[in-house]
Amino acid sequence: MSVVEINFDGLIGPSHNYAGLSLGNLASARNAGAVSQPRAAALQGLAKMRANIALGLTQGLLLPHDRPDEAWLGELGTRYAEAEPHLQACALSASAMWAANAATISPAPDSADGRCHLTVANLVTMPHRSHEWPGTLAQLQLAFAHDAFAVHAPVPAPFGDEGAANHMRLCRDHGAPAIEVFVYGESGGPFPARQHVEASRAVARRHGLPPERTMFVRQSDAAIAAGAFHNDVVAVANEHVLFTHELAFADREAVYAELRRKLPEIEIVEVPAAAVSLEDAIRSYLFNAQLVTLPMGDMALILPSEARETPAVWRWLEAHVAGNGPIRRLEVVDVRQSMANGGGPACLRLRVVCDPALVDPRFLLDGRKIAQLEALVEAHWPEQIGAADIGNPELIRQIRAARQALLEMLDLNTLAQR
């Protein structure tokens, strides 16, 4: 069995728009009502996937959901054409594009039964995301139908679970047993803490994780209040490296000490607040980067262009790469359309460590398939969506036709109503 890390990126959907629905997400709030560009957004995401393949990484795909979600509106006793504008916006949201929130993953080396476990996130804190899980579950059940995987339905409400964005895995290498770190919140000033410790503990139990290799870590109130609505806005891990802001955790010294005890080979790369403020870290999405291991064994950080444009952030990164730190390479990508709605490179991907031969090949990408997807997006995705457009029946027809064309191209028509 050849075990590798696969990054499954969410293809940015044809309904991508800026409705400002995510409380605590500063970029989302700042751009509420702006005109979005779904076609450009999807092409930017595909360009990032193409760049990852060029780096030698294994790349997967998750699909946009059926939007607007008429089934969800039906449960609320209405239809899209008659719904109030805020319900229309929630039903039309393309937020499933941020695949880091799709599920929490425990690879086979970590679990008691030797299977890779995936628990779909319930996302109950935000109305526009709370109805994503059925569509996500349907895709994961197809992609990971092999007996080597166990796909679980969401943790029940009211315990909020927002998936891999609040989960880190630290290990000697991807195929080795890991320390799984679940990060939860309690208070965030005016903003809700979205990951509940009860949900994290439930996921760990479902996945059969040994307690001695599992940690539950509280995110700092300061980070949440500053706009770090998920842990992956202030910390990211890859193999034996933890890359984190000084103010990411409520008790960082205790966290570091426990990690060093459980994984002696760990390297903790901490960015001091004196060098990069929380404000700059969140604005640039320095930590919402993909920290990846390249085929030759060195690590690269895949960053949004906003990181390069933030002087304090880029200064720190250049100094780190010039020294003897574990991050040896910086790769900058343009995902501005996603960033404007509060999602950086790491938001767009779900990491699964497994044998790619066990994954449904319809969800795996190569250069040829990316070229086909780019052509399809150019032909079918709306060029732009403004705030006044979301009730336009012609736009809704275009969105549905675009997704149907995608399903037909990938031979995934079984997902037509998901």
Sum up the structure in keywords.
single chain, 418 residues, alpha/beta, L-arginine/glycine Amidinotransferase, Chain A, 14 helices, 15 strands, globular
Structure, explained:
The chain has 418 residues and is α/β, with parallel strands linked by helices. It has a single domain (4-415), classed as Succinylarginine dihydrolase (L-arginine/glycine Amidinotransferase, Chain A, 5-stranded Propeller), CATH 3.75.10. 32% of the residues lie in helices and 18% in strands. A 3-stranded mixed sheet has the order 2-1-15, with helices on one face. Strand 7 (179-184), helix 6 and strand 8 form a beta-alpha-beta unit. Helix 13 runs antiparallel to helix 14. The longest helix has 18 residues, at 393-410. The model has no long low-confidence stretch (mean pLDDT 96).
Number of strands: 15
Query: What's the order of the H and E elements?
Result: EHHEHHEEHEEEHEHEEHEHEEHHEHEHH
Largest beta-sheet characterization: 3 strands, mixed
Structural domains: how many = 1
In short:
The chain has about 425 residues and is α/β, with parallel strands linked by helices. It has one domain: 5-stranded Propeller (L-arginine/glycine Amidinotransferase, Chain A). Helices cover about 30% and strands about 20% of the residues.
